[in-house]
Write a structure and sequence with these properties.
Layout (H helix, E strand, L loop, with lengths): L7 E7 L2 E7 L28 E6 L5 E4 H5 L4 E9 L2 E11 H8 L14 E7 L4 E5 H4 L9 E6 L2 E9 L13 E8 L5
Parallel strand pairs: 3-11
Antiparallel strand pairs: 1-2, 3-4, 5-6, 6-9, 7-8, 7-11, 9-10
Length: 191
């Protein structure tokens, strides 16, 4: 290894534990590794009632949104197509831009760090525990502007619970059904 290179420490998350993994040579001035907190799993002990959506994590105003509040927000319509195990699907979805929901909750950002909003991710959690991560940068109108929605209706039919819609995805893996929680995370490098 070349002199002066710093060791990078990576954390690999495994349910209920973190394993530090090192690459490179040890550095005597290595700072302590900050803890990484996994988003909570929506449990059956505290289920989210139908018609409600939790917003948690790195936000100034965590809380619950009702179906009526979502219906009262400015909505958008997108047409999407993607591939699933069942074949190609095409849908028209109407819903609230995910970026608007996160902006309304007030992201917690580091002071003095340029474009710190690009360090934000949203873990979208379904009723069954299925999760998908969306970066704020890919959905923000000022950056990626992908039109990511929390759909309240699909193909003209209202949904019992919102569904994550990610225009441009070739596969439907991030189309989380029955969304019950948006968990906002602020990423921080460990070196």
């Amino acid at each position: 290894m070349a002199r002066g290179r710093r060791r990078r420490t990576w954390l690999v998350a495994i349910p209920l534990m973190l394993l530090p993994v090192s690459c490179g040579t040890p550095a005597s001035d290595a700072s302590p590794v900050p803890a990484i907190v996994s988003p909570p799993v929506t449990s059956t002990v505290h289920p989210v009632p139908a018609g409600q959506l939790r917003i948690t994590g790195a936000v100034r105003r965590p809380g619950v949104l009702t179906a009526q509040q979502l219906a009262g927000m400015t909505s958008q319509t997108v047409s999407v197509s993607y591939r699933t195990e069942r074949g190609d699907e095409r849908h028209t979805a109407v819903g609230v831009p995910l970026s608007a929901l996160v902006d309304q909750a007030g992201m917690v950002l580091a002071q003095g760090r340029e474009h710190d909003e690009l360090s934000i991710g949203i873990v979208v959690i379904g009723l069954d525990g299925y999760r998908a991560l969306i970066s704020y940068g890919e959905m923000s109108p000022a950056f990626g502007n992908r039109g990511v929605l929390l759909a309240t209706s699909e193909d003209g039919k209202p949904l019992a619970r919102p569904r994550l819609v990610v225009p441009g995805d070739l596969r439907g893996g991030r189309y989380v059904r029955d969304v019950v929680e948006l968990h906002v995370v602020h990423t921080t490098p460990t070196w």
